[in-house]
Amino acid sequence: MFESTGVKLKAPLSKGLLLVLSGLTVMLSLLPQYQHMFEYNLQAVSHQLQVGRLLCGRLVCLDVKDSFCSGMLIYNFRIFERRFGSRKFASFLLGTWCVSALLDLLLAQVVSFLFDDKVEELPAGLLAPVFALFVPFYSSIPRVPVTKVLGLISITNKTLVYIVGLQLLTSSPFMWLLALSGLVSGGLYHSNVLWLQNFLFVPARLCAVAHYLLEPLFSSSQPSGEAPLGMGATLDIQRQQRMDQLDQQLLLAQFNEARANSRHRAQWSRLFPSLRRRRPAPPQPQSQTQPSAPPLPSDNSIAEEQVARLVEMGFSRLDALEALRVSNNDINMATNFLLQH
User: How confident is the prediction for the chain on average, in pLDDT?
Assistant: First the structure.
């Protein structure tokens, strides 16, 4: 974690990419005479070694529809920048961009050899890193059911993101090649099998300069009650999101109350240690006892596997224990609670 919590919530890198890349796409659509400079021509890159064509071709979309779909995905994937910080998010984009650039050339040669179909040009834009973000999205974001269509098809908080990705996948003939290279590069970088995270990362000084330049431009208030990756398209989904927001507010209140009680108990025990050996109250008759509410799960009853999963997602062990305690050991509710608060 290289940035403060406020900077992470603003997600300046995601907003900057969304605005700058979308603006360049609109500008190129109005000035078609300059579009040839941003075409992703594999022959020019591999045979003529045009590095500028590689940089421009894999950055700006020439198709407005591709720019719109990739912009929606970048906006939804900003949750990773909020969770891990802008530097780790930028390092992931840089690492997958470099690895997928090599995979594009390799896959194009394989397709030409197997199917006698020479691949000379691929869709332009920051497409392979966007597809690479589906790897951590699939593995680390919990699947929370929202509603059902006709009682058969289950709609979750991740359904709309997959639909947008499928739309982007079918927009061009060779888009599947970029998607494949992006998914492979995302899996390699996310799992760190080849130690890519050790040498493909954004330097701290560059991140500090970008922090001072981008944060004033994309400053925003902390999101309140925003469901992760949720975009309600129907009244049922919006109603379910509202219920989730109320549940998260209740969990937050229980979380703060539990922390305050534990803090007060620690201070009281430190000031008055003799009260620890206070005699217990005599047991009351069975007829006079009243049924009490079931207690919240203690630290011993919380599954260590669930705590380990939350710790692997980037949360501290103390926060994971508190979230599982107030959510009654529900891993999905605890994850949503930690992501928002």
Answer: 78
Q: Check residue 36 and report its DSSP letter.
A: G
What is the residue type of 145? P
The kind and range of the H/E element at 149 are strand 145-149
State the pLDDT confidence band at 341, using cuts at 50, 70 and 90: low
Domain count of the chain? 2
- Mean pLDDT value across residues 6-22: 78
Find the radius of gyration of the CA atoms of the chain: 25
Q: What span, in angstroms and rounded, lies between the C-alpha atoms of 228 and 76?
A: 8
Closest C-alpha to 314, from 16, 39, 88, 144: 88
198 and 248 both lie in a single domain: no
123 class by beta-carbon count within 10 Å (0-12 exposed, 13-18 middle, 19+ buried): buried
Residues 250, 185 share a domain: no
Mark which of 194, 223, 252 sits at the end of a domain: 223
Burial of 51 (0-12, 13-18, 19+ CB in 10 A): exposed
User: Could you report the per-residue pLDDT of 90-122, keeping only the tens digit for each?
Assistant: 999 999 999 999 999 999 999 888 887 788 899
**Burial (Cβ within 10 Å: 0-12, 13-18, ≥19) of residue 213:** exposed
The CATH number of residue 166's host domain is 1.20.1540
φ, ψ of residue 38 to 5 degrees: the values are: -110, 15
* DSSP-assigned letters across all residues of 100-116: HHHHHHHHHHHHHHHH-
Bridge partners of residue 148, in order along the sequence: 154
Q: Give me the residue label for tokens 């006079």.
A: 288
pLDDT category, 301, cuts 50, 70, 90? low
Helix (H, G, I), strand (E, B) or coil at 220: coil
